[in-house]
TrEMBL record, chain A:
Matching Pfam families: ABC_tran, BCA_ABC_TP_C
One GO MF term: ATP hydrolysis activity
PROSITE patterns xref list: ABC_TRANSPORTER_2
Entry protein name: ABC transporter ATP-binding protein
Record bears the keyword Signal: no
Record keyword ATP-binding present: yes
Stretches assigned to the ABC transporter domain: 5-252
Taxonomic lineage of the native organism: Bacteria, Bacillati, Actinomycetota, Actinomycetes, Kitasatosporales
One Gene Ontology term, aspect cellular component: plasma membrane
Keywords, alphabetical: ATP-binding, Nucleotide-binding, Transport
From TrEMBL, chain B:
The keyword Cell membrane appears for this protein: yes
Keywords: Cell membrane, Membrane, Transmembrane, Transmembrane helix
Chain residue ranges for the region called Disordered: 300-320
Protein name: Branched-chain amino acid ABC transporter permease
Top-rank taxon: Bacteria
Residue stretches spanning the membrane: 58-77, 84-104, 130-149, 179-204, 216-245, 257-278
Subcellular location(s) of the protein: Cell membrane
Biological source species: Streptomyces mesophilus
Molecular-function annotations in GO: branched-chain amino acid transmembrane transporter activity
Amino acid sequence: MTSLLEVHDVGKAFGGVYAVREVGLTVAEGELRGVIGPNGAGKSTLFNLISGHLLPDHGTLTYAGRRLERLTPHARAKLGIAIVFQGARLFLGMTALENVMVGAHARTRHGFLSAALRLPAHRREERAIRADALEALDRVGLKDWADRAAEELPLGQQRSLQVARALCARPRLLLLDEPASGLRAAEREALAQLIESLRGEGLTTLLVEHDVAFVARLADRISVLDLGAHIAEGTPAEIRQDERVIAAYLGKEAA
Amino acid sequence: MNESVLVLLLLSAIVVTGLSMLMGYAGQVSLGQASFTMIGAYTAALIATHGRPTWLGLLAAPFVATAAAALIGIPLLRLRGHRLAFATLAVQLVLLSVVGQQAWTGGDIGLQGIPLLNIGGYEFSGDRPYIYLALAALLLVVLITRNVVASRPGRGLRALATSEVAAESSGVPVATYKLVVFSLSAGFAGLAGGIYAFYIGYVSPGSFPVLLSFEYVVMVVVGGAGTIWGALAGATAITLLLQWLNDLGTREGMPASAPAVLSYAVYGVLLILVVLFLPRGLVPSATSWWARHVRWPRRRTSEPADTPSTAPKEMHYEPN
């Protein structure tokens, strides 16, 4: 299998303290990779290094053969990397449909001039974006919410709305940051099924998550971080039996 | 209302439509928008007083203002929220002081004897032609704003007003978009300034005080940021109010300082009242009141007055 994302030896320090240190991982095309670790392990820092909201102090990030580490987040989005943030980073004062339509920004091109002049090509693109966004809303089960204000949605639906926004970008790599946090059991189950069906379609996914059971159920392989370092990698079954992981993380939870 | 007030009202509405787009959709505040009106007015005046065709002056005004905004916007728009607001205010103070000291801009006296606007042999003289010119310019500006707001880049602007981080990751080039909308709103102000220069016939730093920038912001807030009708309503309401206060302040027996005191005090009081009681401005408050009480009166009981069904469009800033 060819690799889509290669993180090599990246490090990021805040005020002299490393949040992530010499972390490396390789995600294959079509793989669902989980990243777990206890609080303060550096999961969020690693996530932000890949999304582009943080720049690494050293190390390299390679995506589909291109170096990423100095690209802006919107340039990374244009390369096909879509993100579902922790919590609900929705666009307020816009409908659910409009929120999802923003997701198409990465792969569409009409700008201010053609918008101001209402060029036919711009209007065609608008219609296509709207259709794609409705399809993405349907995919996550939010079709009936299309014209509601995004902030009126319950938390579980807000998370799904973010997934729809990411899907509307037609991503090649989907980054999920703690998608299950704060969700009720039924919402969590629906989210797990959605992620599973996306994997079935071959979408490469990086799932950063605190909830080990949630990741173990979904991931092909799991990378484990502890105190900013990469301590183990393997299939969910291998990770469960890894002594370093048990000591660092599962052991503490069992105790 | 006399016709000269109507011209000035329409010119304010042009500026305020752009500022409302900047504030209401993109969430960026400019406290120095009159800088761009001034740049437009001086551009038109300089071109016309140097013997070039007056229509060229009018055409150049919005473009020079746009270019100036694009240039100063690059460093300025790195600032957010009130820091950006103060930086734009500082730009205007610097501009006023520089223009007031240069010989080629006429210093504090300004540029006088601007010829009448002449387009294709038709000479614009008197109030009436300028009313139509300003009205046409306002229509153009409203049309552009409406088209931009309801489009792909318009959605990007509204998105970045809530979350620059999430907008960036959806592929919105946040810095570029902010610069474009800042420049576009400056272009509108420059167009209004160009018409103003030909209408009044002279320009001086005194015509573009900081108070004028505040006036624009008050118009946006009173009318309701992020709505085109709000911009028009705000410009109308404030222009008429100022006119009335001016009549009041210059009545016999009033002290000489009365007009200035009245207008400053009224800005302050008005802003406080609007923010307290109509935080979304006249037009959005009126439309949701209409929706609740007139169109669907039965929903009154099910929906408390402070949570209207149409989501309020407010400004959100991310602390960096």
